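Q: Fold this one first, please.
A: Sequence and structure below.
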Amino acid sequence: MRTVMNLWLCLALWAGFFSPLAVRAETHPPNVILILADDLGYGDIGPFGSRTNRTPNLDRMAAEGMRLTSFYGAPVCTPSRAQILTGCYAKRVSLPNVLFPKSSDGLSSQEQTVADLLRQRGYATMVIGKWHVGDHPDFLPTRHGFDHYFGLPYSNDMGPNESAAAATNAPAKKSQTPPLPLIRDDRVIETVNGRGQDSLTERYTEEAVKFIRDHQKQPFFLYLPHTAVHTPIHPGDKFRGRNGTPFNDWVEELDASAGRVLDTVRATGLADHTLVIFTSDNGPWLPQGTNAGVAGPLRGGKGSTWEGGVREPTIAWWPGRVPAGTSCDAVAANFDFLPTFVKLAGGSLPADRKIDGQDISPLLFEQSKTSPHEAFYYFNGSRLQAVRSGPWKLSVVARAGELPTATTPFVPHLYNLDTEIGERTDVAAQNPEVVRRLAQLVAGMEADLGAGTNSGPGVRPAGRVANPTGLWLPGEVPVN
């Protein structure tokens, strides 16, 4: 009898080892899907407290996965995307500010992006949506590790000849809908005008679904940086008028898009082998009024280093690996994506350069509750404005609301984010040792990346072209 039982046990183990799931796990590293919203606030989706926007798909994603409640991006678009792609603070790779059409600067070809490193591991790679780290052909995704690209090279409010000097935050200006070049791989396939933006989210989603279905049998990395919900606001026809304001409608469409991506992963049988992350690039663009979201309990919004400008609503989903219905408050950031994804793929990081990000898979798998970072640094452009270590956040540059007066010069402000997430009470006087420790961290970072300039020893140059050109259909160069 014992011999028969041992035989059955061996057969069962053998069958399990050679099952399709086991074979896939042995021969196929996990797929990775990164969904990035644009200007979505911390309080704009249900899992982070919204009672205005209906987000049933993200609600389910959070119920089946993990909310990351202290997850950081950058104050504005380009730096946040540079951090995702390079695993570094944007200042380190000389992309600390928003790029405009026909910029001479862009993502350097000397950087090894997350797509470069995953493609070395046999991954199919694609980006669908807003790129915004350079629109000259040398800077496009297909030059930076992506097999394919479909989307817009910059924000949906940027005219073809707009420059940083001409750009403003005025809602009147930003309500305009300029002509936009829609790119497939490295060439423009059409010019998107006016109502053409209404279909962008649906088109991005269709491309994402097709990519997943077409690459079921090989590991893939899908980067899906949406145009939504950046102004001007353009929900699709199926969603317009459903939920109060066009902004609310577009959040609902963004949620539906995420739902279709997740449903496709489930339908193709890839759920147990795919990490999906949903996040945003920066906080809500508050001056846009009803065309902007909200930061929930956080102070400030886009363009600031208050928590509302850089702390992002983030969800991780991987059934069987990321525990369902969990949350993690350890500090992490979007530059952690690169080392995390590369580690999961079985790869290694470049040894010839500094990478600021860390592998956060122990946080995702609840093997640890401790941040791998001693500190997180809040840059606004090239200026280091604040630092966080544990619950403590030290503001070292006067921000809106901290401005000195003629009789009261600015001194660093200290906030305890565990006891007061809204950053209202300065507790520096009660905690001088904490202030000194965080000030030392600031000094160390400024010694690395420079104080207020891009001249620190740890700064690497951006890519640069002498004669930048825009991307347009032949004979169709629009005028603002």
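Q: Good. Now the second chain.
A: Here it is, same layout.
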Amino acid sequence: MSGRALFLAWETVLGGGIVPRVRIEREGQMRRKTLATAALALLATPAGAAESTINAGDTAWVLTSSALVLFMIPGLALFYGGMTRQKNMLSTLMHSMFMVGIISVQWVVIGYTLCFGTDIGSFVGGLDYFMLNGVGQGPSPIADNLPDLLFMMFQGMFAIITPALITGAFAERIRFVPFAIFSILWATLVYDPICHWVWGGGWIAQYWGALDFAGGTVVHISSGTAALVISILLGRRIGWPKEPMPPHNLPLTVLGAGILWFGWFGFNAGSALAADGLAASAFVMTHMAAAMAMVTWAVTEHLQRGKASVLGAASGAVAGLVAITPAAGFVSATSALIIGGVAGVLCYFAVSWKFSLGYDDSLDVVGVHGVGGTWGALATGIFASTAVNPGGADGLLAGNPSLLLAQLVSVVATIAYSLIVTFILVKLVDSIFGLRAEQEDEIQGLDLSEHGERAYNL
């Protein structure tokens, strides 16, 4: 039996079915346009004709999705904040929320053009869009059903949340001003080039054709790798792991996880860049993977510890959301359940590895985002199907092992680049400004020492 026939039989037996063919409008997939050819097309037609390509329904959906992704930031802040000790609650909230400010500015000034400007050596974008030069209300050269400004802003939300994810790794022991400087540098020198490689016409898309629907490599692997580097270089929290450091407010963490789950529909389904069947498919697969991962994490924890914790269930849901992100627009429901199910088990054990390996990843960024994102990217190479999305590619189970190889190359390259550049940036910022909080300040708590406030006045 051929690989393709085996895949179809596997889908039928497991009940996945074949999702009707739907379109995708992500650059580098179904209808790639270079910025040069798009500019020529716009010059050759009247302004009114160019405007007519913008679809009102698609625009409304991506506007909504952009807001949903932004809403994930306070969700992440609560998710992380509830897991810290009370004396560091405000500091942890500030780490996530401040990214909305500084990364938004960085994105407008230089981030967007480095990601989506004219390709330079397949590594980074040029300065065509510096300070949003030429980015207006007309059709985007990348997704001409959307206004150019909207595509820019939707992508900007991903740029905001990625460095915010890293903050969970060094919670409770980093100074605020050096952290902000590091975040700007990291977004510019790590996130922007990797984004260009995958979504902006860089080498991963051009030469390997690796798939990343909504940010498995761009967002989760890059941030998870950076989290590992900085948690090791910054050192352990005072007293870890001998001193108990339980979450101070689990209800807030669960609320944050719920907001993340809600916002993730904009993250993944919005990446279809249209209000169509592909968006619906990505929406469903996102939910199914998160639900399955929550279940498998809880079951695994119950078998290992005799109890299924609330924190574990919330973490499991997030692990499933992370794992399905690169695959959401390329796989069926059966595949989504498998991806989520494996993520729940894998990430549960990955979180425990930090104790045996001895690195203090405060809020489990490496175990959930790094490991979950890596599994999701590789799983895309296994389960992707053009029966779900003809603009993608068939994976290993559909008879195309080359896609799994491409996914592996993208994973290794992302890990290597993020690891090396993050290492350099941490060393640089630490040598100039000093990243680690003083011992007395850490004992007192960063809320008072860095911000002069208390989270609770009871």
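Q: Anything worth noting on the second one?
A: Residues 56-451 form a domain with the Ammonium transporter fold fold (CATH 1.10.3430.10).
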